[in-house]
Amino acid sequence: MENFEELKQTYAKYLSFLKKFFPESSDAIDCMEADLGERLFLAPRDITPDLGGIPGGLVSFSLNVAKQTKIFHEAVNHRSLVRVALLHELGRVGGPHADLFVTETSDWHREKLNRNYKYNEACPKMSSSHRTLFYIAKYGFKVTMDEWVAILTSAGFQYDENRFYANENLPLASALQMCRTLTFNEM
Fold first, then answer.
1. pLDDT grade, residue 18 (50/70/90)?
2. Cα-atom radius of gyration of the chain, to the nearest Å?
3. pLDDT of 186 above 60
């Protein structure tokens, strides 16, 4: 993100898309925004800039994944795919009271490894997808079972926690993973 105004525009676009694709969850969006607003607005997606380790990287990545969904409009329920694209990494904000990523204080790590952030040891241990599902339940977002499974498995079927689903026919989950891959390729 280049500047504060661009961050504000991207965040406003994100909230607008949430309201468009989750009209039945407007209270959930308002509650989430009131609770996580500034944290979500500024949240990086990861620790290095090339993976979204910049202020606003999380929201920007989610919007970029949602943008990739257009190629799947005939293969899966496009509305569901956009919905999961917008929410699937919400857990990267961190726990209810601790950010997942904090500013890297080591000059060596910043200069040699290009890390703007580091993992926050004070953040409760939980996978990003599980924390995302926690927030979805906490705020009352209404998702379908297919959307829930797509979010749960969004990091990939190769992870132990997702192997149970690896041999299943899960078009929505597979499409979300492909949209993520395409977004990573553009970074």
1. very high
2. 16
3. yes
In this predicted model, what pLDDT tens digit does every residue of 138-182 receive, in sequence order? 999 999 999 999 999 999 999 998 999 998 999 999 999 999 999
Number of other CB atoms surrounding residue 46 within 10 Å: 21
- Give the separation between CA 164 and CA 180, rounded to whole angstroms: 21
Q: What is the mean pLDDT of the chain?
A: 95
Question: DSSP states of the chain as a string?
Answer: --SHHHHHHHHHHHHHHHHHH-GGGHHHHHHHHHHHHHHHHH--SSSSGGGT-STTHHHHHHHHHHHHGGGGTTTS-HHHHHHHHHHTTGGGGEETTEESEEE---HHHHHHS--SEEE-TTSPP--HHHHHHHHHHHHT----HHHHHHHHTTT-TTSGGGGGGTTS--HHHHHHHHHHHHHHHH-
Contact residues for 74 (Cβ-Cβ < 8 A; gap 6+): none
Pairwise CA distance, residues 134 & 125, whole Å: 13
Residue 49's CB is within 10 A of a number of other CB atoms, namely: 16
pLDDT, tens only, 65-108: 999 999 998 889 999 999 999 999 999 999 999 999 999 999 99
